[in-house]
Amino acid sequence: MKYISPFRYPGGKSWLVPKIKAIAQEWYPQGLDKIIEPFCGGASVSLDSIAKGWAKKAHLNDLDEKIYNFWNVLIGGIIRVNGLSDSNCFFNCLQRTKTPEDFWCSYPEETSFEPSGSPWEEALKTLILNRTSFTGSIYPALSGKMGKGHTRWNQEKLFKRCQLINEKKDQLDISNLDWFDFLETHQKSNALFYIDPPYITAGKKLYRHYNVSLPDILNTTRKLKGGVIISYEDDEQAEMHAKCQNFWVQRVKMPAGKTELLFLKEPEE
Ligand SMILES: C[S@@+](CC[C@H](N)C(=O)[O-])C[C@H]1O[C@@H](n2cnc3c(N)ncnc32)[C@H](O)[C@@H]1O
């Protein structure tokens, strides 16, 4: 399976996985115990690492409640009175959802920020909105582009990816914190931190939470014990901030030919 994440997440980094894997293997030649993603979104890097075995564990964190709920349902969720978990209900319904319309005909279309259904229903809505909205945003109203015609719903493939992640649940931790509070609890960890914050220019049209300060992220992450890789849009000021905080800067080519920046800090001995 080439891609593990079921999302085609806006700003997703599946294209960067080989580069991050290569850096991880150089920095952690004995093997990587854990990868930590404070801005996980579709978690393409972490999920690849545990599915393909280049990290033993991964911790996914995102401040977005819907994203957190999705991962939480996928790896278990709440057990209900009838003995079925949210995860069971999610998989049963996903199996029946051959087209997004199969789902929307039983549930009202959801574009608001506030959750309105049970955790597993919300999780399925999140996945469907992500796969069918024009930008991949789970808040299509933000960009003004609903784009139901842009359907990328391959039920069989998505089911297999979700199932694989569910099988790896013992290797996954998840949380729903602001990045700063989250990192405070991981200061001494020797994990690899992969940091992919929202970019200033595009963030507000794509995510519910987007207002993060790159200088604050650089200042906080340079004090972590583990290795740090930050991906960011190619921007002169961002590059200058990173260099001032003693990060190595690399320019990487995206598949479409544009470039992005990587800010790197090796793990402490
Ligand atoms: C660029 S996306 C991450 C994409 C991810 N790397 C992938 O491959 O799918 C940034 C994510 O940061 C989350 N986010 C925004 N502000 C945050 C905050 N203060 N703390 C934690 N997560 C936040 C957003 O909800 C969004 O999912």
Describe the protein.
- This protein is an alpha/beta fold and 269 residues long.
- It has a single domain (14-265), classed as Vaccinia Virus protein VP39 (Rossmann fold), CATH 3.40.50.
- Helices cover 39% and strands 15% of the residues.
- It has helices at 17-27, 44-51, 65-74, 86-96, 100-104, 119-132, 140-143, 155-167, 179-184, 200-206, 214-221, 236-244, and strands at residues 32-37, 55-61, 172-175, 192-195, 228-233, 248-253, 259-265.
- It has a 7-stranded mixed β-sheet with strand order 3-2-1-4-5-7-6, with helices on both faces.
- A hairpin with a 5-residue loop joins strand 6 (248-253) and strand 7.
Question: Spans of 5+ residues with little confidence (pLDDT < 50)?
Answer: none
Structural class: alpha/beta
State the helix count.
12
Q: What is the second-level CATH architecture?
A: 3-Layer(aba) Sandwich
What Rg, in angstroms, do the CA atoms define? 18 Å
Portion of residues within helices: 25-40%
The name of the CATH superfamily reads Vaccinia Virus protein VP39
Amino- and carboxy-terminal Cα gap: 35 Å
State the order of secondary-structure elements, H for helix, E for strand.
HEHEHHHHHHEHEHHEHEE
List the helices and strands and how they pair.
Blueprint: H1 17-27, E1 32-37, H2 44-51, E2 55-61, H3 65-74, H4 86-96, H5 100-104, H6 119-132, H7 140-143, H8 155-167, E3 172-175, H9 179-184, E4 192-195, H10 200-206, H11 214-221, E5 228-233, H12 236-244, E6 248-253, E7 259-265
Parallel strand pairs: 1-2, 1-4, 2-3, 4-5
Antiparallel strand pairs: 5-7, 6-7
Helix pairs in contact: 3-6, 4-6
This protein binds S-adenosylmethionine.
